[in-house]
């Protein structure tokens, strides 16, 4: 393969990868737009407030992973984990560590659904707290309700995006084979 062919192939791979990322965001957007609102209790000092808000699909995935740590290294060694490192959580959810950092900042500082445990001087473990468990329980019920109320239009939109995603994946695989 000459330099021009290699350059064209790299551009093709980049284009397909960009399309794949866009479609992935589109699928997440469809999910998030259709998520029902849940009522969340927040406390300011001693005052209790009820907030009605949408929880994002990505937040649910993080809370679910933190709620059941049976997948983490400590659990695999037969120990009961207190929490998990941000890197291990990011790897488990197949998310970039910078993205995980932003998501955890929201869950810990803004929503207060998770917490950092100072494990050693440098290592902090992440864990879900009681409020996070309550939110997760409500969110899981809301998701089950949402899935049971999917309209034919929502289903068609989702299937079209999913089909386009599969086509992009196949194009990327073919482009990668050509570059070898």
Helix-strand pattern, N to C? Answer: HEEHHHHEEHH
Report the span from N to C terminus.
Answer: 9 Å
* Number of beta-strand segments: 4
Query: Numbering strands along the chain, what is their spatial order in the largest sheet?
Result: 1-2
Ranges where pLDDT stays below 50 over 5 or more residues in a row are: none
Q: Per the principal axes of the C-alpha atoms, what is the gross shape?
A: globular
SS-based structural class? alpha+beta
CATH class: Mainly Alpha
Classify the beta-strand content into a percent band.
5-15%
Q: What is the CATH H-level superfamily?
A: Winged helix-like DNA-binding domain superfamily/Winged helix DNA-binding domain
**Assembly of the depicted chains:** single chain
Number of helices: 7
CATH topology value: Arc Repressor Mutant, subunit A
Radius of gyration: 20 Å
Mean pLDDT level: 81
Largest sheet: 2 strands, antiparallel
The domain tally reads: 1
Q: Percent of residues in helical segments?
A: 55-70%
What is the CATH architecture assignment?
Orthogonal Bundle
């Amino acid at each position: 393969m000459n330099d021009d062919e290699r350059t064209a192939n790299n551009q093709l791979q980049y284009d397909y990868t960009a399309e794949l990322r866009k479609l992935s965001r589109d699928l997440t957007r469809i999910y998030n737009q259709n998520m029902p609102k849940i009522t969340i209790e927040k406390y300011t000092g001693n005052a209790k407030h009820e907030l009605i808000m949408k929880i994002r699909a990505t937040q649910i995935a993080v809370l679910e992973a933190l709620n059941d740590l049976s997948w983490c290294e400590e659990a695999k060694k037969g120990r009961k984990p207190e929490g998990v490192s941000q890197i291990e959580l990011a790897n488990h959810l197949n998310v970039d560590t910078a993205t995980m950092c932003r998501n955890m900042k929201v869950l810990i500082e803004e929503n207060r659904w998770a917490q950092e445990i100072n494990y050693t001087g440098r290592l902090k473990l992440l864990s879900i707290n009681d409020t996070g468990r309550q939110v997760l329980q409500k969110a899981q019920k809301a998701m089950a309700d949402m899935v049971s109320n999917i309209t034919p239009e929502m289903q068609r939109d989702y299937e079209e995006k999913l089909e386009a995603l599969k086509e992009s994946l196949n194009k990327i695989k073919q482009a990668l084979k050509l570059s070898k």
